[in-house]
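Suppose you are handed a protein chain with no further information: no name, no annotation, nothing but its sequence. What can you learn? This example shows the usual starting point.
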Amino acid sequence: MIDESLLRTAIEQATLVRRHAYAPYSNFLVGAALVAADGTIYRGCNVENASYGLTQCAERSAVTAATADANRAIVCCVVIADTPEPITPCGACRQVLAEVSMDMVVVCRTLSGQEQRFTMHELLPSGFAPSSLPPS
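A reasonable first move is to predict its three-dimensional structure. Written in structure tokens, the prediction is:
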């Protein structure tokens, strides 16, 4: 369970970082904030590329920031976009988030405040995880 005060801060941070998204092709701005077990918040936004395939999603951008800070003890991911209904992470982001923690809570929100909460187990049931690999 995540502290609701810390969650509110993460929602604010995801909303703020969303404004920095680079999305000249889709005009679809997404912000994400990861909450670590120690309370640190890592932000990310989507960064598009003219080749499309090299586009970086907000969630993966935030995971990169947390990893660069050597903090992978993530308990929550907030995803926010200006959509009528909350959006969930794409398949690639689900896989990357699952690599971090299958137990994290994913909070999907709209700018107007509609919200849905999931665990990674709900978003990626029977997902491919490090435990899926044979022992090395």
